[in-house]
Specification:
By secondary structure, the chain is mainly α. The protein is built from seven helices and no strands.
């Protein structure tokens, strides 16, 4: 299962017009998240980027992407972990730290939930031979 979220998706069906983030807000928030995946990211940080209160931001973000901010951040962290596993030979403990996760066990728990396998097995299966 890939967790790719390369471009922000369109608002879910049934979302009220004006209930979500404006395109500039979504770009700014998504860029902020990408730049700080290895750091602690709070809803207050994200709301400030969108120039909204935390409550307004949470509702608008969820209406726009169909998931809460924490879910999106975790999906981006897992996607970054996938890319690092494919493109580096760094140990999983370093990859988990680079993705803002507590430790390798945290990465493994999340990865198993979303991909159905451990990061080590996923890496072995998806890396090119000799890579």
């Amino acid at each position: 299962m890939s967790l790719s979220v390369s471009a922000p998706p369109a608002a879910p069906r049934g979302a009220r017009a004006g209930a979500g983030l404006a395109p500039w807000q979504l770009r700014r928030v998504a860029g902020f998240i990408e730049d700080r995946l290895s750091e602690r990211i709070t809803v207050a940080d994200l709301a400030a980027q969108a120039r909204l209160s935390r409550a307004q931001f949470f509702r608008a973000f969820t209406a726009t992407l169909g998931m809460p901010p924490h879910g999106y951040v975790m999906a981006r962290r897992l996607r970054r972990a996938e890319m690092l596993m494919l493109t580096t030979s760094e140990p999983l403990s370093r990859i988990s730290a680079a993705c803002g996760l507590a430790d390798q066990a945290h990465l493994t728990r999340l990865f198993r939930c979303h991909a159905g396998t451990t990061p080590h097995r996923w890496r072995r299966r998806h890396r090119a031979p000799g890579g």
